[in-house]
From TrEMBL:
The protein's name in its UniProt record: Amino acid transporter
Compartments where located: Cell membrane; Membrane
GO (cellular component) term, any one: plasma membrane
Compositional bias (Polar residues): 24-52
Species, as recorded: Albugo candida
Pfam families assigned to the protein according to its UniProt record, in alphabetical order: SDF
Annotated transmembrane regions: 93-111, 131-153, 165-185, 273-301, 322-344, 356-381, 393-411, 431-455, 467-487
Membrane topology of the entry: Multi-pass membrane protein
Family the UniProt entry places it in: Belongs to the dicarboxylate/amino acid:cation symporter (DAACS) (TC 2.A.23) family.
Gene Ontology MF terms: symporter activity
InterPro entries: Na-dicarboxylate_symporter, Na:dicarbo_symporter_sf
Region annotation Disordered: where it falls in the sequence: 23-52
Length: 555
């Protein structure tokens, strides 16, 4: 990249080696649009500040860009650009915070600390997470808008969008298939010792009456009820069924497959973007921002000062939010220690980890196979590049993801690592990662089949699993990779919906409580896998896409 203040010279040729447009920095021509659709050549508008903006439609492979963007900031000439603030946080500090959090959490759990101490330990991590969520949604909104505008301005919107979607779908299918395979291979380890076939236990009650020593009895002959002493032809045990659900204490929402599909599709389009930002409905925010960026890219006026104010506002909002995230992420090691310690101290049922050890181990094996075997093979076959060299730059993002247990909150660290790897322009990285953090949760679809089979086997009715149920589990797991509903415990809602639909039961097994405790560890590994998914998608798209224009726009 040329240094700031360097002169820019551009030569644009079509496929027949014919020159169509030449610009010089000294020219102060107005922003204009040249229609060269007959040759498929690009058109180059130019603003009044001396900075050229290159719009390319029908991309030609013989377009040459010499030098770089003109900058009026001559004061920075010769100065080294400082690195991102939180790139200075080395991996060793993150690892140190992680291990200190584990040690502190185990210590607090061993001494059975009360809730006041645990809340004080968790407070820094909670404040850090709240601050990240406060900034990351406006950042994603502005970053997607700017990235979509740049990509459409460069004439690459359809190419990059379709290629990204194609890779997403491939990863969904591969992840769900791997999850079903690992679940079937591990099902024998999920059975609990002495577990009988699944049956429903009821708590029966007996009702006394006015007669001394008598109970309320029901006769099968005529379904009559009377008060009396024990009779061989009468039933004295009654089952209580609560009809109004007034005393129902289950906190997990149960929805049907149809409701889940309709809700997932409906949340793509926002009816109130301000409310979507408040409710953190990321899918609706990303889709709205994409269309806003496309509008901003086409928004220029020939009879004004020719300044794209909408694009400038979005660009400055993105830069401001990113700077704020840099400052907040400086506290990440302390926050990770607080979050890990508070999580371990609050879940003091260590026996549950032992009982669900096979489940945690199966999920860990599946995620390792996905991250280090299956996806690298796909990347190598697609790009003929070494994927592990790229994954080496993502170590810091993996640590952030494991500590924060949120791929959305780890988005700034992911983009920082991608920028440090110099793999692609920040425009392409922001576009893919922002969409991926909300719509590409393939690792979630990887562990859902394992969770369903674990619950079935541990409850005693996993032996009744048929081929059609396995196929249904595969299809529903693929669908779950597209995202989770914007409700608390969203992945658990999908799990319950798939489990009750595939196995045809309305009740959850008693091992569900054990699953919820063990899932606190699995969820962190799932977050790492989701971050890795987005990073490898960026790798494939960057290696197979001509980014000349996007890199220049970012300059």
């Amino acid at each position: 990249m040329a240094s700031p203040g360097q002169k820019a010279f551009f030569v644009v040729l079509d496929d027949h080696n014919r020159e169509h447009f030449r610009t010089y920095p000294s020219q102060q021509s107005p922003m204009r649009h040249i229609d060269l659709s007959s040759t498929g050549s690009p058109s180059i508008p130019k603003n009044t500040t001396g900075s050229s903006f290159y719009e390319r439609r029908g991309l030609s492979t013989s377009a040459f860009l010499e030098s770089s963007l003109v900058s009026n900031n001559d004061a920075n000439d010769g100065k080294k650009v400082p690195p991102l603030r939180f790139q200075a946080i080395s991996v060793r500090y993150m690892v140190l915070g992680l291990f200190l959090g584990i040690a502190l959490g185990i210590l607090l759990a061993f001494f059975k600390s009360n809730s006041v101490v645990i809340n004080l330990i968790s407070l820094p991590g909670d404040l850090f997470t709240r601050a990240i969520k406060c900034i990351v949604i406006p950042y994603i909104f502005s970053a997607v808008a700017v990235a979509s505008g740049d990509i459409m301005f460069a004439g690459k919107g359809f190419v990059i969008g379709f290629k990204t979607l194609k890779i997403f779908v491939l990863f969904w299918i591969l992840s769900a298939s791997l999850g079903v395979g690992v679940a079937l291979a591990s099902r024998s380890f999920f059975k609990l010792e002495g577990q009988e076939e699944h049956h429903i236990e009821y708590n029966y009650v007996q009702l006394s009456c006015d007669q001394v020593g008598g109970t309320l009895q029901s006769f099968l002959q005529n379904d009559s009820i009377r008060c009396g002493k024990a009779d061989s032809g009468a039933k004295v045990n009654f089952e209580v069924k609560e009809q109004t659900n007034f005393y129902k204490t289950h906190s997990i929402m149960k929805v049907s497959i149809n409701d889940l599909i309709l809700t997932s599709i409906g949340r793509i389009v926002s009816e109130n973007i301000a409310l979507s930002l408040i409710m953190m409905e990321t899918s609706a925010v990303v889709v709205f921002a994409s269309f806003l960026g496309i509008v901003a890219a086409q928004n220029y006026y020939e009879k004004t000062r020719r300044v794209n104010y909408l694009y400038c506002v979005l660009l400055q909002l993105r830069n401001s939010c990113y700077w704020a995230l840099e400052c907040i992420m400086l506290l990440a090691p302390l926050a990770v220690m607080s979050i890990i310690a508070g999580s371990l101290a609050s879940n003091q049922h260590f026996s549950a980890y032992t009982q669900a050890g096979a489940y945690v181990g199966a999920c860990a094996i599946a995620i390792i196979l996905q991250m280090f075997v299956m996806y690298p093979i796909v990347v190598f076959l697609w790009t003929r590049c070494n994927p592990y060299a790229h994954m080496r730059f993502m170590i810091r993002a993996y640590l952030y993801a494991f500590g924060l247990s949120s791929s959305l909150a780890a988005t700034p660290a992911t983009l920082s690592c991608l920028q440090k790897s110099r793999l692609c322009s920040i425009t392409l990285a922001e576009f893919i990662v922002s969409f991926g953090s909300t719509m590409n949760l393939s690792t979630s679809g990887l562990v859902i089949p394992i969770s369903c089979v674990y619950l079935a086997e541990s409850a005693g009715f996993g032996s009744s699993l048929t081929v059609w149920q396995i196929l249904s589990l595969l299809v529903l797991s693929i669908f779950s990779c597209t995202g989770v509903p914007p409700v608390p415990q969203g992945r658990t809602v999908i799990l319950i919906t798939i489990f009750t639909s595939v196995f045809g039961t309305d009740t959850l097994p008693q091992t569900f409580a054990t699953y919820m405790v063990a899932d606190s560890i699995v969820d962190r590994m799932v977050t790492v896998g989701n971050v890795n998914d987005d990073a490898l998608v960026v790798k494939i798209v960057a290696e197979t896409t001509d980014e000349t224009v996007l890199t220049w726009l970012h300059s």
